[in-house]
Specification:
Elements lengths: L1 H11 L1 H19 L3 E12 L6 E11 L2 E9 L3 E14 L2 E14 L4 E15 L4 E15 L11 E12 L2
Length: about 170
């Protein structure tokens, strides 16, 4: 149990590492003439979980060529989670499809129990302009560790559909 708690504490401190990575990536990309951009946004997600079907999300990050580094947070009625999000851009029929994965942690029912989560997703971005984009995504939430005594009743594992409006600099 101590190892699980230690892992959760490490994941809670990842945000400082993300900021350092983003700062260094911006410095390197400006000197090497890479395609880059950054953005932030808000979104709505619908899922098949026992906690209700709609969650709000917020997040953002930095893109360098075909890679993405950032973070995202999700807020439901009875829980919240967030963490480090990494991604890679694929080309399917000349359409950019992103494969992202979130590593993070969260809490349910305001300090009742903690959990560690992995959430992979596929997303498609439609650029309205170089400053505004809409995203549609399909993902799966998987709890790696859950400290809840009633885990089966409150399970949030499952698929979700989401969309978000992002503002930033899109190349």
């Amino acid at each position: 149990m101590k190892a699980k708690k230690h892992l959760y504490l490490i994941l809670k401190k990842i945000d400082k590492a993300v900021l350092l990575i983003l700062f260094n990536t911006i410095l390197v990309s400006n000197t090497l003439n890479y395609k880059n951009g950054g953005f932030g946004g808000i979104g709505l997600n619908m899922s098949n979980t026992n906690f209700g079907s709609i969650t709000l999300s917020s997040g953002g990050g930095f893109e360098l060529n075909r890679t993405f580094v950032g973070g995202r947070s999700y807020y439901g009625d009875d829980y919240f989670f967030g963490g480090l999000e990494l991604g890679y851009k694929l080309s399917v029929n000349n359409k950019p499809i992103w494969l992202n994965i979130l590593f993070g942690g969260g809490q349910r029912n305001i300090k009742e129990s903690d959990f560690v989560i992995i959430a992979p997703k596929l997303k498609y971005r439609y650029k309205l302009s170089s400053l505004v984009a809409l995203e549609m995504n399909l993902g799966y939430k998987y709890l790696v560790f859950d400290y809840s005594p009633d885990y089966v009743e409150n399970n949030i594992n499952g698929f979700y559909l989401g969309s978000s409006l992002n503002l930033g600099w899109f190349n």
